[in-house]
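Re-run with default settings, no changes from the original entry. Doing this only to confirm the output is reproducible before filing.
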Amino acid sequence: MGFYELTFPKMSPRFFIAFLTLVIGLLSSWFLFQTPESPKEAKTTKPVTKKVPEYIPSNPASNRKKNTAGSNRNPDFDPNAIPYERVIAFSSEEAYRNFLKKLGDSRVRNKGTIDALRAVRIAFDSPADFESLGLDPDDVQFNYTVSIPELREVPPQPGAVGFGTTALEYLGINRDNSEWGRGVKIAVIDTGIEPHLALGGNIKHINLVELAEGSSPNSHGTSVASLIAGQHPNMRGVAPQAELISVRVADESGISNSFLLAQGITAAADAGAQLINISMGSSSDSNLVRQAVDYAIEQGAVIFASSGNDGTAYSSYPAADPDVYSVGAIDANGTHLNFSNTDDNLAFTAPGLEVQAAYPGDNVTSFTGTSGAVAFPVGAVAAIMSESNQTISAQQAVQILQDHSNEAGLPGADNQFGIGIVDVGRAIDRNTSGIVDVAVASQNYLLPTSSSSASGLQVSIENRGTETVYQSTVDIQIGNDYFPYTLQKLSPNERTVVTIPSGLGQLRAEGQLEVSAKINLSEGQIDVKPANDQRKEIVTIPANDR
């Protein structure tokens, strides 16, 4: 095969420079505004699966610097944003109103406003139309995709046990709770709540999204609502008498965006919601959503959100916001589920595997994910408020729930279980005397590190009752070795950690070690939940730590 020589016509230096300048300009514009989809498809853009840098929350949450500037990403392009859209948030009412007037004379389309936040959602067909508005870059934000969390890549681990109809029992609700939640308003910001025999008629509807003609509503919001306030005897929620506010911000595919989410949060707050449930998330942090969260909190609302189902070491947004209570998922054995995102900002964990929930058409579904898990602490807070005769605020009720959550995982708060596993019965019975309940909360093996040579089995003991226990013993076994330990005194809600420095050699040699602990109460005290008095499990060690 021969070779062919390519020849170009001769051109003057001046013409060459002009031609080169034109090519560079065209390439710059192409890269700057290149988007994965056309403007007409922006409304139904699928979320981009992308791992983002780990989110490090401010500490304490109340000292979080308010993030009111524009996007913290490239000001011209973000792969997670909806193409050909922007959100404009103004610092003054005058600037906001002037812009709305100016917008009517431009080729840019107004797709929605949030007066409470002085925010506008705009769409445009060309970069030139957007640039013609002459906006201050500090006022401009991206509009990110938000969606209901799905089990995409990380399934539940083998051996995980589903809840079925036992979730309420697991949460310590072993009595008639049919009146719980009365007088408490709860907003479910989701895909909407459809009629169902498990849900009463006390539901206010705020629809910020109109469904496509002929489409079927997404079941997600209905399932979440039933876990909070289901009223049917065979499908009862935690707080059946709560007043639900259905705020639909997602379409039939479960897709929404940060502007609609912010609009939903402000609408829920304006409707008087004391609690807000958000079983949705995004991989991107929206300043507008943070502003909406601040607005709702100022109105007295408390916000809960699902941590996400991606199995990552960071929650999705808005759960990652330190002012939002992030919730993860466990199975019926109290084990952290692999898909549940972990985060140092995690507040609670709750049932999240195969939980029976409502499905449109008076049907039942097996609901899995952190979407369902977040509904349980929301319902629990409503129950605490109503059972306290409305004498406490939502925030005070959250504190009570935290103080009476069950220790799990590593001692203290951790990124898998947060402050602990929700225990509604324990929180409701906090002022009932005579309850004796001491539990072996968890067992963890401490390995030596470069900074510490300490090692051994850590056994967490927790008094979940309302009576102080004295002179209890704990029988601890590590492999074939037995270690008795005496608890002189353990007050209600008190936790203690017993560390036994033994077993490291066997653990490294064999890669696993059987451990167990059993509590024996002093004579005259009877534990109301003897099942949690003991634990037996196999501790394993990674090969590179042997």
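The chain has three domains: 52-146, 162-428, 438-545. The radius of gyration is 27 Å.
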